[in-house]
Amino acid sequence: MNTLPLHPSVVHVPLGLAVVMPLLLGAMVWAIASGRLPGKAWLIVMVLQGVVLGAAAVALWTGGQDEHRVEARTGEAAVESHERTAQVFTVTAGATFLSAAGALLVRNRRRPFLVAGVASTVLSIGMLVLGVQAGRGGGALTHGGAAMVQGGTNQTADPGQARDQGSGQEPEDDDDD
Fold first, then answer.
1. What is the separation of C-alpha 81 from the centre of its chain, rounded to a whole number of angstroms?
2. Tell me: the pLDDT tens digits for 71-94?
3. According to the model, what pLDDT value does residue 1 have?
4. Domain 7-151 is in which class?
5. Average predicted confidence (pLDDT) for the chain
């Protein structure tokens, strides 16, 4: 039986698509509004945004399943912070999907389509920002301990290693040449 948690494998789908969606949505709004593509081409972004939303929901579910494993190692506060960010990401993915659905409904009317399409694009930018935050928090829980999630400065797994790295500043030059 595979003992690896499913959550780290699942989260890469919505996060990867969240990077692409603002560019794709913006390009599709422009292409459809300018007549370069037919309105039905908007179905492409609807399907992809649906995948983002569905995968984000699955990632939340699998994260809940794996939560107890990580809390024992990193602490409850760090996991809760990551979970809250992931929940807001998922809600924003849903809002982006609904906005895109509205654009699909009015795709043959230029001005309403532009409003809904631009709203979808703006929401997808917010979704991207939240995805980066959730991914950074999850990465810190998986690879670097809880310090980065909780706002600490130690971003390494070994506190002794961070101490050995010093302040990161160059040593002062004693030469008075």
1. 14
2. 777 778 888 888 999 999 999 999
3. 53
4. mainly alpha
5. 83
Domain boundaries in the chain? 7-151
Q: Long-range contacts of range 57-66, CB-CB < 8 Å, 24 or more positions apart?
A: 57/90, 58/10, 59/7, 59/10, 59/11, 59/13, 59/14, 59/86, 59/90, 60/86, 60/87, 60/90, 62/5, 62/6, 62/7, 62/10, 63/7, 63/11, 65/5, 65/6, 65/7, 66/5, 66/6, 66/7
In residues, how long is the chain?
A: 177
C-alpha separations of 14 from 2, 5, 66, 68, 128 in Å: 23, 17, 18, 23, 10
Positions of the chain with pLDDT under 50 = 146-174, 177
Q: Provide the residue type at 52 as one letter.
A: V
Tokens (6 digits) for 153? 């400065």
